[in-house]
Structure formats: C-alpha cells, structure tokens
C-alpha cells in the first residue's frame, strides 16, 4: 500500500511538487518566525537579567520584598552560596557575580538625585553583564579601583558630571547612620533604558562595603546561565544544595523580575496568535492540495478499483499519499527554513529601520537589540514538525474518505 | 525638610572669632600650619558648644519670595532644633535633628513625621542652602586642606584669603572653596564655592558685624547662586547666645511636639 | 472571432463541469479572505487594546498643558501661569469640540506621605473624580473602600503604598508637599480607599486626592491646574485631532500645548507601528499562499484538460481564445470566492467584534510598561480592510490564472490528442 502511495506521488512529480510547495513554504516561514521570536526573547531576557540579578539570584530571605541593607548575606552565607553555585552540574552556569546594593542619594555641586548604587566586583561583573560594553566616555571599573563610579548618561547630565568629576553618595549604613562617600566618575554609560541611564551606578564592592560598614557582605549573588531555559533546573539544583541554609533563598528570574516576566508573557501571547493563524493557513493549503489531487485522479482510482483494490484500500492509498507528501514537505520545509534563516540571518536580522528611537526597544528593564539573532531549539522545531504532521494527517482524511467511496463505473465513464 | 540649622555658618564665623582670640593680632603673616591648628582647635572647642538664637531667613526665587522667622537651638554638630514662628501659614513647623535621625513636626496635621535620609533632596526649606551643606558633621579640618592664597589688602581693607581644597577621600561635593577673612577681627567677608571644573557655583557674603553674647559675629549671611543671580537667600540674626545650659536630652520628640 | 460573451459562457460552463475542483478552490480562496480579514482585525484589535491600556489607565489620549510645562514639569507652570484660568470655561470649550468626548483637569505634586514611623516619597495626583472617570480607568480600579470626596481631606493610595505604610481604611496619613509659595504644604488626610492596577510602579508611588484639596495643600488658586486630559472619538487619529484642536485654541486665552499620546509615549506608538508592519506581512503571506493554491489547482486543471483543449483547438478555437477562457475562469472563480468569502466573513467579524472572548482566565493578566493588559481577543474593523482584501483576492485569482492560461495556449492539439 505504501509502495503504491509512494510511487503514485513520484509518478506525478510535478503535481506533487506543487501541492507540497504550500506546505514547504508554510513550514519554512514558521521556522523562520519562531526562531526570530525565540532569539528576540532570549536577548530581551538576557539584557535585563545581566544588568539585574541574573537568571538565578541567591539572596537573604526577606531581601526581595524589603530591598533593605539589613537583609543581606554575611561572609558565611556567601561562602555557602558560592560553593553551591560552583557545584552546579555541567556547563549550565556561565558566570556569577556578587552584588552589594543600596538605594541612596547622589549629590554634586549642581544637584542631588536618588539612585540605586550597586557595589560590584569589576572582573566578575565584566564576565557577567554587558554594562561595561556600553561605555560612552571613560572606562568601566577595573580591579584595584577604589573611589571610582560608573554612571549613566542621564544621571551625568542632570548632575553636571563628566569623567573625573567628583560627587558624593549618601545612604544609611548597616549601623543606621547616614554616611557619605566620595566617588569620581570613571566612566559614563548609555544603555538606552531610561531607568538605568538615570538611576543606576556601579562602584567597587569593597568601596561599598567599607562605606556601609558591611565587611564581606553581599545583598545578591547573581548567576548567569548559558540559556534561560535552564533556569528552573538550576534553581531546583541550588535549592537542594542549600536546603539547610535558612539565611539564603534561591530565586529564578521570573520571581526576581516580575515585570520582565509579564512583558514576555504578553509578547508570547502575540506570538501564539500569529503562529496559530499560520498553522491554520498551512492546514488549509494541505487540505486544498490533497483534495485537488484526489479530484483530479478519479479515473486513476477507478482503474485501481477495477484492478481489484477495494474502496477502503483506495482510501488508504490516498491517505498514504497525503501522509507521505506531508512528511516529505515537512522535512524539506524544515531544512529550507533552517537553511534560509541560518544562511542569511545567522548574524541577525536588522530591524533597526523599523523604529526611530532607540528606547522603543527597551521595556521592562531590558532591551532587544534591533539586530535579532535567531535561535533554534530542537524541541521547538520538533514541535512544529509534529503539528504539521498532525495537520497533514487530518487533512488527508477527508480526501481519503472521498476516494474510498468512489463509484468505479462512474469514474471510468469519462475519458479524461 | 530642614536639617542642622546653619551651624556651619555659625561655626565659620565663630572659628574666625576664636582664631582672633587665640593668635597674635594682624601684622604677622599667618602660617598655613598655624591656620590649620587654629581651625582644628576651634573645631574641637565647637564640639561642646551650644547655642540659641532667633533669626529671619529671606528667600527670593524665580517663582516666589518668602520670609521666615525662626528660633534655633543647637548642640555641637549632631543636635539641633528649629522652630518657625512666622509667617502664620508655616508657624509652628519644627525640625529636630538628633544624631542621624530627622523629624519634622507639622502643625496643621498636628503630626510628627520621621524623614529618612534618602528623601533629603535639594534645598533646605526651599532656600539656596542645600541639605548637603547642613547634613554632614562639621569636619572642615578633616575634609579640606588649607592654603593662604592672599595676605594683603583688597579695596583698602587688610585681608587674608584662604583656598580650601578637599582632601583626596573627603565626601564633599565642592572642588574648591575660597574665603576671605578680615585681618583686624578675623571676620569672614565672603566664601565662594566652586565645582570640580573650577566653575563658581555660589557665593556667600557676610555683613552687619555685631556683638552678640560677648562675641563679634556677622549677623547677615547672603547666599547667591552663580547661575541665577536674581535669586538669593539671606539669613539675618536678631539674637544669638552661646554656651547655654543645654544637653542632648533637650533634643527630643517631646520638645519637638511641645509648642512654644 | 466569436463575441466576448461566448468566452464568458464557456468559462462559466468549464467551471461548473468540474464542480468539485471549482468549489474547493473557491472555498480555499474564500477562507483565505476570511483569514486575512480576521487576522488583520485581530492585530488591529490588539493595537486598539494596547492603545487603550497604555492611555486609558492614567495618561489620557490627549493632554493639554501650558506651553512652558513640558518637558521639565515644573510645578509652577500651571495652565495660564500664576493666575490660572477660568477652569469651567476652558473645560466647556474643549468638550465643545466634536472630536473630544471628555475632559478632566489634573494637578501634580511631589511629596511625602507618612504614617507612624514610616515615611515614603509619593506622587500626588489631584483630580476631579467625576470627570476623571470619563477620561481614565484608574479610579475604577478601587480594590478596597471608595473614592475620595472633595473638601473632606480624603485620599486614595495604591495597594503597594498602603502596604509599605501599613495603612488600613480609615487610617490617618500625613501629606507634605512643597507649595507654590515655597512653603511646605502639610495636612492630615484620611485613607478612604486603595486602588490596584497590577503595575508596581503605580501601586507603590501614587496617591489620588480631590483637585481642590491638593490645590489648597499646594497654595494654589482653584483655577490653577497642570494638565487637562482628553478622550477622543477615534484613537488612531489622535495626532490629527490634537493639531486641529491646537490650531482652534490659538489666539484667545493662555499659551497652550496640545499633545497626543503618540508624542507622550513614542515607544508605544512605535510598537504599534511595528504591529502594523506585521499586519502587512501577514496579509502578504496569506495572499501568497492563496496565489499558490489557485495557481496550483488551475495548473493541475490545465494539465488534466489538455485533451479538452486539444479538441477545442482542433475545432478551430485560437490559442488566444483558450487563454481567455482560462483567464475568465479565474475571474469568475475570484468573484465567486469573493461572494462566498464576504458572506461568511461578515457575520463572523461582526459577532466577534461585539462579543470578544476574554482569555484572562486562561492566560492571566499582565502588567507592561505601566499598563495592565488583559488578553481579550478583540477585533477592530475598519471599512478599508475588507475592501482591500477583496480587491487583493480578486487580483490574486486573476494573476494565478495567467500562467495556466499561458500554458493552455501552448498545447499542440495533435500531441495532446495522441496522448504524447
């Protein structure tokens, strides 16, 4: 039966090719758009969490809600956390970095503004976030820096700061006293994310510890993973490793950065709608094509039945054809889609022409680079293939049934 | 939101006075080392100093003008209490600073609120003095290095001019401060504040020197921002007493709430 | 040569001789039409929802300010300067405009809210509760308690702020704000309600009070407001409406600036522009597939009708005649598909538009860029979309018939008849 099906498809190569074309293009398009969407999302997540608290964050239990210095991790807790992170299996962890964060005031001769101050380890931070690459003037922090601050371009503008200018940080120390700390601008960055450009600075973590009277302390251990899809796995691994530590809490980025989570889900929703429609169109194309092929071959079927094939068997032949066609177009479509996307756009598809202002690409604390690099996930590709096969199968049922009910005599009647 | 009431201003005038008392009068040039020692001694003296006074502060900005009458107590550099007595709309408002806590009493609401440091922004009571001026404990000696930039005569008056540059790690926003002091009585005449680039940001001038509680002090201090010369803040003392009987317990919420 | 009418009749009959094929192709095209209209409608719907959510929560679709107010938002630069305006008159004048459906005045203040030992910075939002509800949806998000009543020292805060200050309904809140005369306005308010938007930035930082109360706190006359927010009749025409309104307000009265939401939130406008682009992409895809489908079936048809064409040719029909037949078949097919397509699309779109399915229970709500967003599958339709799609459909059918028609003219009669 299958042989018959395959041969009949082969015999009418031109016809088969045409009917397959619709499916191939549909699938290729699906692969293209899904991989772009995946790429865009991954970028978005990555940019937000790299400047934020990572894919996974280890903090003191109350820190997320309070944001206060009193809820920090001490030396012992920090050690434990680091050991746990080092012990995570495989290559899932790309980098990790300690942070000591406070909300405080930045004052210059010109003005004063409230900001978020992140004490960071320059070397580890370089590997972790890409803030060091957004330098507009000066340089990023380096090991050995002490009274150096890396500030956003908006903050610099409002406080009248240039590279080398002094300004004073004021915040409440661990003891409850208001302490001032002198720093000088060592570099100015531009992220195009307004909240960052006017409200965030990086200073060396040792400087922050000295200033706030919190030796060896951190408020967050931020962990960067190879891909955001490993988040849940790594979170549970870390939770197991830190099961006894009541002074530590492990959080995935969805909990630590809920705004980002919301924004992504909303975007996903838009994608689902689009892809559903695409699937519907592909299904339609398949149905149309197979139906057409059935109708055009009444005589042929009549002949087959005259030669001894039952109605049911005819039906199976048609069904087999449909399936075969779907499978072949499925694979071809996938390969085509993959080749097309990877071949032309592996370095990214540049959408920057579509939006004029840079900040159109920023939302929820993250940024999508206008150049979107597509990402393929085997699971996602297989899922698409799976759906196409199902659709192809379903679409072949009706024509197969029609074929099986053919009236032999009638079919043979017309010389076509 | 007010913080420590102009003790710095008071301090500087007192420091100048004290240095007059402690060192030889005019003709001999003042060595940098001696100047620093003087200020240092005075600074330590000031730690136990208490004061009580009444003053008027006049503020002129682009959008409004305002005049406030106040009564002030201060103890060292960590405690102060300010009451606003006039105009009626603001009468009864009070600010207490005790160590690192700041409280405001608001008469219309009849409530006291605690003001966290992160909310201290911009100007003190809408004036051209910033909270930054008044927040930090006086550490002129620790924060700045002195240099005598002029020892001579300006407009027929014999003066010293000092240039203060911040020490490498001092948490101060000014790149440089210059001040002029009259030789004959060591009264300050003006102070100029510069940013890190050397641009003048604001100027404070002193005048109307009078004897108060046995000391010569400038009773009028005027602050003018360099970028908006039509705006200004002037503080005028009407009364000032020193070394009164005050201790830390006076600076409490109870006192804050008890209206005078 | 036979008159044109003949070819039409022949084309018509050809189509009906192969009923199955004709119907399938027609329904394919019709369905393509339905998908295109629905798809565009859906994205338009998403766009409309986005605009609504982005603008209706607090911003309003158009904002009127003093010409000097933006971008610094200096508190002293009220509409009409220090003297303010005759507020009722200005509001009436704005509402008289045919494109404006509602107007609401607002005053903004930055200050502190304090309860017990906790003090927090907040944004004070002075509104006219009745008018505000016509322009924004913030006041409809009251989660507990009720809206404040003017001149009673009542205040409404976000749930997150209430939590941070440990406030419950009926609690006292001290409100302090710099006033227009430089003094510190302060007073005691009673919390009468809390609102929840789902957006932390709003729920933690905003406090709503009646306009007159905030004016008094900030030492401002009743005629002084910072902003008047407007709702327009057609959200997507907002920039046009705004500039027309600005022109009509010029001359008499204070110097005003009329700003549409597209300028206030350019990133939102651009996100929508992106979606429009996606619309075209989708429509393009759908029609490409339709072309394929039609060309496909017509080509198949052409192959299978070789003998038929050969016979007709042998009987004396010119190749051009055959070509015309095929093209006419395409056109009739297109017309039929259109008719069917329109017939099924119209009721579906109308029904969907009037009762859009709400997927909130399935997908949950989201908060994004300061707006709460509920996943309601909504369709907006304008009159041009279906017409454009119809024309495209028709052209598609005709274009798709061209290649097969050309192929049909090339069939050599003798070969075809001999099955070679």
How is the CATH topology of chain B named?
outer membrane lipoprotein receptor (LolB), chain A
Largest interface by residue count?
A-C, 44 and 46 residues
Mean pLDDT of chain B: 76
Mean pLDDT of chain C: 81
CATH architecture of chain B: Clam
Strand order of the largest sheet of chain B: 6-5-4-3-2-1-13-12-11-10-9-8-7
Report the biggest beta sheet of chain B as strand number plus sense, adding barrel if it closes.
13 strands, antiparallel
| Number of structurally distinct domains of chain B | 1
Cα distance spanning the termini of chain C:
29 Å
Uncertain segments of chain C are: 364-372
CATH homologous superfamily annotation of chain B: Lipoprotein localisation LolA/LolB/LppX
Annotation field: number of helices of chain B: 5
Quick one: overall form of chain B?
Answer: globular
**Any idea of the CATH class of chain B?**
Mainly Beta
Give the fraction of residues assigned to helices of chain C: 40-55%
Number of domains of chain C: 2
Describe the structure.
The complex is a heterotrimer of chains A (416), B (260) and C (420). The relative contact order of chain A is 0.19. Chain A contains 15 helices and 14 strands. Chain A has helices at residues 2-11, 13-51, 63-66, 75-86, 122-128, 153-159, 194-199, 205-212, 231-241, 253-256, 258-295, 298-306, 311-345, 378-404, 408-413, and strands at residues 56-59, 93-107, 112-120, 135-138, 148-152, 166-172, 178-189, 200-204, 220-225, 249-252, 349-350, 362-363, 366-367, 371-372. In chain A, strand 6 and strand 7 (178-189) form a beta hairpin. Chain A starts with a helix and ends with a helix. By secondary structure, chain A is an alpha+beta fold. Chain A has two domains: 2-47 and 261-413, no CATH class; 53-256, no CATH class. In chain A, the strands form three sheets. A six-stranded mixed β-barrel of chain A has the order 2-3-8-5-7-6. In chain A, strands 11-14 form a two-stranded antiparallel sheet. Chain A has a two-stranded antiparallel ribbon with strand order 12-13. Chain B has 260 residues and is α+β, with helices and mostly antiparallel strands. Chain B has one domain (7-245): outer membrane lipoprotein receptor (LolB), chain A (Clam). A 13-stranded antiparallel β-sheet of chain B has the order 6-5-4-3-2-1-13-12-11-10-9-8-7. In chain B, 41% of the residues are buried. Chain C has two domains: 4-55 and 269-417, no CATH class; 60-261, no CATH class. In chain C, 53% of the residues lie in helices and 19% in strands. A six-stranded mixed barrel of chain C has the order 2-3-8-5-7-6. A two-stranded antiparallel sheet of chain C has the order 11-12. Chain C starts with a helix and ends with a helix.
